[in-house]
Amino acid sequence: MSKSKMNVHNLVLLALLTAIVIVLQLLGAFVRFGPFSISLVLMPIVVGAALISPMAGGWLGFVFGLIVLATGDANVFLSIDPLGTVVVVIIKGIVAGLLAGFAYRAIAHFNKTAGAIAAAALCPIGNTGVFILGVYLFFLPVVAEWGMAEGFENVTAYIFLGMIGMNFIIELAINLLLCPVIVRLVQYAKNKSGAAA
Q1: Are 127 and 92 in contact (CB under 8 A)?
Q2: All domains of the chain, ordered by start, with CATH?
């Protein structure tokens, strides 16, 4: 496949994945375990990061962050610290996409499936990790009060068990189960179209 055809193909794929991120985040706002919605959008972020580039993953993560802010999914934090919320929500999406892309690039040279699995794991880890850092930097006193109200004397235990525990496990499981399969299918389609060109 020529370089110009590849660039057009990547732009079309990126546009499609951007639309999927928007739709999944809008629909995913209704899927909740605990106080936060499940981030179903991590799957297309991993696919874009793996098949196009880490920067594409970063872009998709950025779009994810914008939709989180636009849908009000971060309103509880916006009322505490608006600037901190915007910074955390945007950066966690970008980091998730970049980590997925760089993990895939580093490992896929040896094994594409292993690269996809690493990307699928690191995406939710990056997303949740930045969220945790953001809680400690911007929201800790309020989150500690929430934890006390829920019966947690230790704020760290509340963050991990009360706030993010089940959501993180579900996001990680969805990514690990579906992303490698999706990446393999799209890679197969790319190889077929490249052979036909």
Answers
A1: yes
A2: 3-196 (1.10.1760.20)
